[in-house]
Amino acid sequence: MVVDESHIQHFNNSQVMSNINLEQQLESLSEKKQQISKQMDYTKIGRTVKSALIKAQAESRVIVGLSAAIQVLSKSPEGSLFCLMAVPQVGDSATHMHEVLLEAFCYENDIYVIKVDCPIKLSRILGKTVLESCCLVQKTWTGADESGEEQLNKQEEQLVDYCEAYWDAPKHPIVELPVV
Predict the structure, then answer these.
(1) Is 23 within 8 Å of 152 (Cβ atoms)?
(2) Which of 28, 146, 128 shows the shortest CA–CA distance to 84?
(3) What are the strands, taking DSSP E only, across 4-111?
(4) What is the DSSP letter of 83?
(5) pLDDT tens digit string along 58-82?
(6) Crossing angle of helices 154-165/5-39, nearest 10°?
(7) What CATH number belongs to 41-165?
(8) Model's pTM, two decimal places?
(9) 64 in helix, strand or coil?
(10) Radius of gyration (Cα) for the chain, nearest Å?
């Protein structure tokens, strides 16, 4: 088969244009991520997590503990907004496996996962004397039941923006909670 020079040149030009379009899309995504990063002061995210937890706890919307979280999620995952998980301690493989499965379940059910730096800080914010590595923040609704619209307070909106910025990222940043 004989291919003339014009066909080869046309093919090369289309490849170059395709590469340019991909580069432009990647650059655009990178710029968007940088804009979001600039908008969110990540030193404040830990304080925002703390505020959201305290407010949700005052409204009885926090489920504390890995077992309790798994139990609630198995019955009605649609009622959960955030799953906060402390970085697992080295050597506890059983808990680590539960947490990995819980994280996958949360992503599958569109529940925002926020990884925090320390189970001790998380436990103190929640007012617990027992070390807790996980908690769920339940949604609030405009109606008496889940048939109404979902409501978010200011802190929850900020956390949703933070989570959305990293939803498709292969690795999520770990939020440093303030010392309590």
Answers:
(1) no
(2) 128
(3) 62-64, 80-86
(4) E
(5) 999 999 999 999 999 999 999 999 9
(6) 150
(7) 3.30.1330.30
(8) 0.74
(9) strand
(10) 22
